[in-house]
Amino acid sequence: MTFALHGIAVSKGIAIGKAVLISRAALEVSHYLVEAGKEEDEAQKLLDAFEQVRQELEQLRQGLPKDAPQEMAAFLDVHGMILADPALAEKPIKLIRTQRLNAAWALTTELNDLLEQFADIEDAYLKERANDIRQVAERVIKALNAQKKDSLNDDDFLPASDIGVESIIVAHDIAPHDMLRFKDHAFTGFVTDLGGKTSHTAIVARSMEIPAVVGVRHASEMIRHGDWLILDGEHGVVVVAPDEQLLAEYRKLQAQALKEARKLRQLKHSKTETTDRVEIELFANIELPEDAIQAVKLGAVGVGLFRSEFLFMDRKQALPDEEQQYQEYRRVVDLMHGLPVNIRTIDVGADKALGGGSDVSQTGASPLGLRAIRWSLTEPEIFLTQLRAILRASAHGQARIMIPMLAHAKEIDETFRLIEKAKQQLHQRGKAFNPNIQVGAMIEIPAAALMLPLFINRFDFLSIGTNDLIQYTLAIDRADHAVAHLYDPLHPAILNLLSSIIDQAKRADVPVAICGEMAGDPALTKLLLAFGLTDFSMHFSQLLLVKREILKANVGLLKTRAPRVLRAYEPEEQAKALEYLLS
Ligand code: PEP
Ligand code: MG
């Protein structure tokens, strides 16, 4: 039966393919389809792992010291009983046989089903049994991983080409770093139950130029593995089990979009200026060094935001050392051939978890917690290492330091003190760097926006992070789909803040850019031009779309229409003012 689900469109385009369901726990394990004909071997692997865990538990039980608390034995007995229940292996084995899921994937899929059933149970004792089941399943997964030489491996994702049809990932949620792991795999779309438009997961999906719809509540429960899906990344719609007619219509739309993209590419070589000859600079936002290749190809005049934290988010690796970071930054600098590269210092916390295992102090999971520069200043050695690596890259081109989430004067003081210290350390080691490296601040906390002179006086350039500025001004967690409808870039408070920041920076002759998602939204290009913005930084997939708007715009005229928009606070009045501005 055909049905449609609705969510938040975060990455444009239409994808048509079969659903590949990634369970919550499955993101932590390898998941691939076993070769046809090898299903029984895989089922045996699962049974062997069960047997291995049974023996382990038995040994533990035998080895319990006489004075061990009674609960220990009871606990091991419960685990033994869970393991002995044939029902736990039954369904995974069926999944292996009928859908060719690898053993760990099949087991975690079943585990999730079981845990969800437990979630509805009120009884505290029974609820606790859910934990036992999870622990037993985790032991089995560990045993399965031990059967393989190396456990978690990115190659475990089966490329869609091997399946023979295009695949769309369906998951409850995907962390930004896990999203990046899909980069080299030929998936054609993403659907998640959770997420908001400017969550980092959505940003990464856009950067991969793969259609994505997030915040599709219950998608991972309602869509089954192998269902045919149409994913409309423009309107936030997911059609499940579409009929032939619908498929044909969407295929037509897909072809049209391809044609338009080809036409757009012709703009690549033209100058970026408005009809009244105001030159506009378009910069790229990147997550990985190699993204710089596309940025240059599409005509970016620099990297406005390199989200360096993506180098730090691999859970399996230790944090990169100075040399490794230097090599990565240098790669971007080299790829940009002398154009500026704003390396944003590590911004972990909130929806971006830090990798590197247990030897690193924790960041805050709340967007109001220990995030970005706040965390860096509590970890001066990690921060100094990063600063030295950026400084060393500055010997080869225009690497610049950009600091996220500053609000307090004392944070600024401390940051500059550490930059000086990093310079001294390099000097003592005889390493080359640019002593006059430019340092910029992100303006993304309302307090910074409201006290802009502090930043204008102390920094070489400013970059407005509208994703966070909106989040903190409107008190909307940008990753929470429950409040996603309140995340409004056009809120009069936001527009007035933006206009004021741009205006003050321009008057003081301090370069100012926007590097939040607003800069890459072609529907907002004329409005930002009207506020006087001349530097836009966005993901490269948006560059030409924004450029097309710029080529049609007359800044002189737009500026005369801005005050009416800024004065409006009633929605109707604002809508009219905007319509007039865009006419
Ligand atoms: C922003 O906040 O707008 C920004 C560009 O930084 P990030 O999205 O990485 O927080
Ligand atoms: Mg930010």
Automatic annotation (TrEMBL):
Just give the chief location class: cytoplasm
| UniProt keyword terms in alphabetical order | Coiled coil, Cytoplasm, Kinase, Magnesium, Metal-binding, Phosphotransferase system, Sugar transport, Transferase, Transport
This entry's Enzyme Commission designation comes to 2.7.3.9
Q: Which residues are recorded as binding phosphoenolpyruvate? A: R307, R344, N467, D468, R478
Q: Which residues form the active site?
A: H200 (tele-phosphohistidine intermediate), C515 (proton donor)
Q: Which GO terms describe its molecular function?
A: kinase activity; metal ion binding; phosphoenolpyruvate-protein phosphotransferase activity
Which superkingdom does the taxonomy of this entry point to? Answer: Bacteria
Residue ranges of every copy of the Phosphotransferase system enzyme I N-terminal domain listed in the record:
6-129
Q: Which GO terms describe its cellular component?
A: cytoplasm
Coiled coil ranges (UniProt) are 36-63
* Gene Ontology BP terms: phosphoenolpyruvate-dependent sugar phosphotransferase system
Q: Which Gene3D superfamilies match?
A: Phosphoenolpyruvate-binding domains, Phosphohistidine domain, PtsI, HPr-binding domain
Where does the PEP-utilising enzyme C-terminal domain start and stop, copy by copy?
Answer: 263-554
| The name this protein goes by in its record | Phosphoenolpyruvate-protein phosphotransferase
Q: Which lineage ranks, top first, belong to the organism behind this chain?
A: Bacteria, Pseudomonadati, Pseudomonadota, Betaproteobacteria, Burkholderiales
